Amino acid sequence: MKLDPYAVFFFFSFGLLFTVLEITRPARPLKYWAVIKSDLIALALYELLFFPASLYVSNGLVKPHYFFLKELLELPLPVRVILYYVLADFGTYWFHRLMHSRYFWRVHKWHHSPTYIYWLAGIRATFPQQVLFNLPFALCWPLLRQAPSWLFLAVLAENFLRNDWMHMNVTWRSNWLEWLLVTPRYHHIHHSDDPRHYKANLGSLLTIWDRMFGTYVNPEEVGELSFGIGEIGSPVRLALGV
Ligand SMILES: [Zn+2]
Ligand SMILES: [Zn+2]
């Protein structure tokens, strides 16, 4: 399988940056050597198998041009870029919410299984989870038509940056940023093993959907957190989402 050199570059650059930040200012103590083996296996499974296969399936499922009025595609590019992120984020919020329902939880459990959190811990996404998460982006993809090539690189970089960022083991009082954007401490609550936090803070880019649809938990009102799903399942079943 051929790896995109830009993806490799973004992965290692952001990984290095976030590792330095975490070592400098960790939110919680973490022994990297104790977790790195399972995270590297998860990374290999995701990047080499689940992600490319899910892209193939989700792109095949979507006939994007049917979903947008011609007028929307004629808007100036900056407006279309904003629409791309807002609409896709709205979609992923609801798919994420669906995955926290009784019938779909098994396809998402793997993501919540680590009992620790740092930038690489969030790499776990099963094949069916990734297909669902890809769908809103695939539907909105035509909004980026005729964009310059650097913009597609920026979209790729944002994809890596976002997942590393929301899981990184650094947190601070980021209230001002959380009015709009998901921050590490905001998403860490979503990984909490406290039943009061199940289905909380489902957003992955914007925090507005959680506020609008009743799944918001204010990070200012939450104390110490611990993580995981409270059970030791078969790692194979977890990774397959079955
Ligand atoms: Zn979740
Ligand atoms: Zn996560």
Number of domains: 1
Distance between the termini: 26 Å
> Mind describing the biggest β-sheet?
none
Stretches with pLDDT under 50, minimum 5 residues:
none
Share of helix, binned: 55-70%
Small-molecule binders here are: zinc ion
Please state the average pLDDT score: 93
Which series of helices and strands comes N to C? HHHHHHHHHHH
- Strand fraction equals under 5%
CA radius of gyration: 18 Å
Q: What's the total helix number?
A: 11
Beta strands, count? 0
Query: Helix- and strand-based class?
Result: mainly alpha
Shape: globular
Structure report:
The chain has 242 residues and is mainly α. It has one domain (5-240). 58% of the residues lie in helices and 0% in strands. It is built from eleven helices and no strands. The chain has helices at 5-24, 32-61, 70-73, 77-99, 105-112, 127-140, 149-167, 175-178, 184-190, 208-212, 235-240. Helix 2 crosses helix 6 (127-140) and helix 4 (77-99) runs antiparallel to helix 6 (127-140). It is globular, with a radius of gyration of 18 Å. The mean pLDDT is 93. Bound molecules: zinc ion (ZN) (2 copies). One zinc ion (ZN) binds next to loops.
List keywords for this structure.
mainly alpha; globular; binds zinc ion; 242 residues
SSE diagram, text form:
Blueprint: H1 5-24, H2 32-61, H3 70-73, H4 77-99, H5 105-112, H6 127-140, H7 149-167, H8 175-178, H9 184-190, H10 208-212, H11 235-240
Helix pairs in contact: 1-7, 2-6, 4-6
The structure holds zinc ion (2 copies).
